Amino acid sequence: MATSPQQSAAQTPNSPDPTNLTAGDRLLAPYLQPTEPPTDRLPPVPKGDAANLRRATFQMRESVLDELDRFHLELQLALGKSNAPYKEVIVEAAIVQLLNQAKEEGSQWVERLQQWQQSRLRSRR
Question: What is the C-alpha to C-alpha distance for residues 22 and 118, in angstroms, rounded to an integer?
């Protein structure tokens, strides 16, 4: 029998006691897995001058964007609209984690990305 993300998150040996979790922690638990390497952390926030930002536009499947919208709305409900991270922050954090994981796994990630790209190309035909 399959376990839900909430059950599997609650069963991880390093996870905190579920009774002490905040609403935001409970919401994020299924999406976050404990990681050992410090490379999974975001780069430090620049001090003083604003960070150099660059606008980027990418085409993504609508289902991925719908899931991002739902996740963002859940965060806003759990943490309050003013305390929830912006979608851009969520996407940037996900990209940083992906790049760090790709560095660790090397060619396995490249193969998976190539398969994903082929799948996208086939679905457009």
Answer: 41
Is 0.85 surpassed by the pTM of this model? no
Torsion angle of C-alpha atoms 19, 24, 29, 33, degrees rounded to 10: -120
Output the six-digit token pair for 80.
Answer: 């309050």
96 touches 42 (CB < 8 A): yes
Q: For 2-44, what is each residue's pLDDT tens digit? A: 444 444 444 444 445 556 666 555 555 555 555 455 455 666 6
**C-alpha to C-alpha distance for 40 and 114, rounded to whole angstroms:** 23
pLDDT tens, position by position, 64-81: 999 999 999 999 999 999
Rounded CA-CA distance 3/9 in Å is 10
Measured distance CA(21)–CA(87) in Å, rounded? 23
